């Protein structure tokens, strides 16, 4: 009989029975949905009361083009947005910066000033639509712009529902859009959390991501372990500022990936919910049950998709959607079938949205809470996954904690090592990928020639640069200078920088100017290059 | 043979770069990795200072044509045109010819097997 081992290294037996869950206490460890420790989900009736939010990741070209795609998806039943920004925006470079050449509007929407955010959300009612902003190093100024747009639309501050990602620690580990060194970067994370908790109580000012770390190579158990360790680091950061845990923890949210190995993913989320609830209640003393809840976006993993025979990714996406539903996602996003090789087409995005809708409306996965609960296999696997996550978290603690491990590059090196091991497993066929390392026929090479690719238009950058020049010409230069000086001065102190950033944004200072005003004080991160 | 694995431009996805770097290291090559977000000028300078034989660019943002041209031209301008430039990442097959025209000695488009990349470096060693 063949040997089966999950990505987390857990061996799988050919059959499970009561003896495999004999050691656990069903009432204390599993409980009921909506009850501590939330193993079975954070709401009592789960999707019977409220279906998961469908939130595709969208953004490309100019704010005007992105606005049109937002409206297209909303007209087809998407109920929330998830904004992709181009790399210059994510790194705080203006569109006319020499380092932005070739990148403006390419992997997301270009934003230079408040005027761009105003155009991106024109005609989209921000008092009714919730918007995720996939922004980290520049989360503070971009979220300040978002709050300003909402204000100008007449949305009361307490009606704004936005989720800036604002998780800089995982950027150092995996995604790479860091700018400042670790400590000032963490200060900005905390400034945005604190400011939002006080002014915009319905916003979710940090979305802790295991997603990108797993996509960069780590295992399922490591994804959850590192994510929980990062969440704990942010909780400690806010406590050190004198905030009470229940003043911010209810608005912490998560962003995790999901591949197509259904039961491993389900076990990962069930174990993660249980561990988070216990950590928040027992270690941090949270009293508000909302502080105990692991609320998560489950985004399908683009790295599970293949460039070869890309239509097969539609099928992979359907299994991922099912796994995410069975895992108890609050929000779902799916990669598009063309994600392995291009910026998604409108057709591919619609198919991804339809996949989630079919899962919700036709499959029955949304009919009852935690339909896999009580399965010998799933409960045993949840326990095994929990043990593995705890072991990985202890490993991080042993190296001095997650912040230290990020600074030294120890986590980055482990993620790279795991990525290499996984690549070797693909090469040997230990991890199967249909049409790539098994059942690969001749059709494979044929279809590659037919890939439909996003035609990047260099005129996008020209238009964006011209727009930026217009904003620079029309704004009150003295107000901009004064606001930027205030920001630099406050960066030298310890005050919350958000009010100064808001002033810069309202004066139409550019993102590049705001970034420089802080970088002059904070300096730049030096990456520990280890692999 | 000594190889500089480099991440030019702004893209922060280094999974591929680090996987290839580990595979080449295991195959016996000497590897230097630049880290993220290097400018073409910084890569040219590091290639010369480290006295490498090959620069391997990893680009996933779509800006591969511009960045490859900059690195190749930079090496030529510095009189270091004996250093080969090879390119990998989310390179659509239809861009392979354009990258070679821009001066890339080899291109590893999406879906290239790791073993094929290692073999290509091995063949180059055998030639030199």
In words, what does this structure look like?
The complex is a heterodimer of chains A (531) and B (128). Chain A is an alpha/beta fold and 531 residues long. Chain A has one domain: Alpha-Beta Barrel (TIM Barrel). Chain A contains 21 helices and nine strands. Chain A has helices at residues 26-30, 63-75, 87-90, 114-120, 139-152, 168-175, 182-199, 211-215, 220-240, 245-248, 262-283, 312-327, 346-361, 376-398, 402-408, 410-428, 443-448, 459-474, 477-492, 498-506, 511-522, and strands at residues 53-54, 57-58, 80-83, 130-133, 162-164, 206-209, 252-258, 296-300, 331-333. Chain A has a five-stranded parallel β-sheet. A four-stranded parallel β-sheet of chain A has the order 2-3-4-5. The longest helix of chain A has 23 residues, at 376-398. Chain A is globular, with a radius of gyration of 23 Å. Chain B has five helices and five strands, in the order βαβαβαβαβα. Chain B has a single domain, classed as 3-Layer(aba) Sandwich (Rossmann fold), CATH 3.40.50.280. In chain B, helix 2 packs across helix 3. Helices cover 44% and strands 19% of the residues of chain B. In chain B, helix 1 links the parallel strand 1 (2-6) and strand 2 (30-33). Chain B has helices at residues 15-26, 40-49, 64-77, 96-101, 114-127, and strands at residues 2-6, 30-33, 54-59, 84-89, 106-108. By secondary structure, chain B is of the alpha/beta class. The A-B interface holds A 87-88, 90-91, 93, 99-103, 106-107, 171, 174-177, 215-217, 303, 306-308, 340-343, 416-417, 419-420, 423-424, 427, 436, 448-449, 451, 453, 456, 527, 529, 531 and B 9-15, 18-19, 21-23, 33-37, 39, 61-63, 66-67, 90, 92-94, 110-111, 113-115.
